[in-house]
Amino acid sequence: MEGVTIFTSLVFLVFLVTVTLTSVALIGLVELRNKYSLIFSCIVQILAGILLITLVNIIKTQRTLGHKGRYFLIQVCVIPIVYTISLVVSFLYYGIAVIIPISILPILLILKISYQKRFKDKYSSSSHQLVILE
To answer: Which residues cross the membrane (predicted)?
Structure first.
């Protein structure tokens, strides 16, 4: 059990460092506007997303997730998937690859709407509000 908490602490620490690098990568992307800054930004975002997914999976192994937990896990997976697509496209078309991350918000909104329709009876009776992760 102690090994799990040490691993969780290490993953969380690396996650915090990666999140700090996110702003540096985005500033570099805006100022430099070249392929390499986009690739660095994508890699940082993907790494942060993978670490967040790892943290959620660690939490998931300690307790079972209901439909809200699965919805949260899907939300967490959206950002690294979109940035992976952007990274692949950046090798072909730089201009399109820069625009792809804009799709994150519409995807999260579509997920929220579909979640509300799917679990309408459970969602309306609950006093909890869903929050879109940014």
So the answer is: 7-30, 36-59, 71-89, 95-115
